[in-house]
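Thread: sanity check for a docking pose with zinc ion

Original post by kr_44:
Hi all, I'm comparing my docking run against an independent structure prediction. Below are the sequence and the ligand SMILES. Could someone generate the full complex and paste the structure tokens? I mainly care about where the ligand ends up relative to the chain.
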Amino acid sequence: MTLKFCQGPDCHTYNTNDRLKGQKDNKTYQTRRRSNFYYGRGNFCDRRCMEDWVAQYVEQALDHFGRTTQAKHLTEDSAWIKDYDWGIDDEQNRYFFINAITKERRPLTEQQYNDRTYTLNG
Ligand SMILES: [Zn+2]
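Reply from moderator J.T.:
Ran it for you. Here is the predicted complex with zinc ion included:
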């Protein structure tokens, strides 16, 4: 089992007991190290550390990967959303696609609803 370090730049500055390590007269607060983290795709020990990273590196990251410089468009072709209505007693009609732009509804089975790969979006 390999342990990895939290990538939060200030992780070691938060004074929690689990971060305090070392021998009696040589203790330091240290960056958390675990086999698994739950934030930022497994890179941060908690939300604060993830937000610290964003605050410190977001400008560099955007410069590196490219900024959005014009509006993106979600067109009718790609505006289909899966939805359900528990108020509908008839199970056959409980699930449906709804188009976020035209508001058109199209029927959907529960199986299709749960199938993450099934979509009408082009
Ligand atoms: Zn951390």
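Residues 47-65 form the longest helix (19 residues). Hope that helps with the comparison, let us know if your pose agrees.
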